[in-house]
Amino acid sequence: MYTQKLHAGSKFPDITATTLTGEQLKLSDTGPDADWKLVVVYRGKHCPLCTKYLNQLEGYQDKLISLGVETIAVSGDSREQLEQHLAKLNISFPITHGLSIEQMKTLGLYISNPRSPEETDHQFAEPGLFVVNEKGNIQVVDISNNPFVRPELEALVSGIAWIRNPENNYPIRGTYAD
Fold first, then answer.
1. 177 in a domain, yes or no?
2. Residue 10 and residue 16 in contact, taking contact as beta carbons nearer than 8 Å
């Protein structure tokens, strides 16, 4: 299967996902305390590495907010699966469910079939991470085809701090095209 990847510097797609309360959140929207968004796509409740990553990400929320970056997590899980997953999560940032196959494709994510019914009952996105800047453009993108490769959070947050520092005048990287 081939996937079409989103390019650094391009507009982040207009994608919404659903909270447990049924609220539809646009993944790239920010609130009054931030003008950038960190969008974390995780595999689902069946993935212990995703649970660990999301819980570790919670430890960086104060620093991210101080940098003007809000976080949201999303998966293709059902409402019920997200409810069950919350028992293993200790997070304060919004987490959503119901990412469709079409939305996964739009984001350029790798999509996997479950290995067995015990793993999960639906196809799911492999990890993806997008940092969306104040213009709605993709500043940082990381897409993996398995749960073992993800940005190390300390390096990610330090990198965002570097990028956001106006003294560094750091452009969006990876935009060369013939």
1. no
2. no
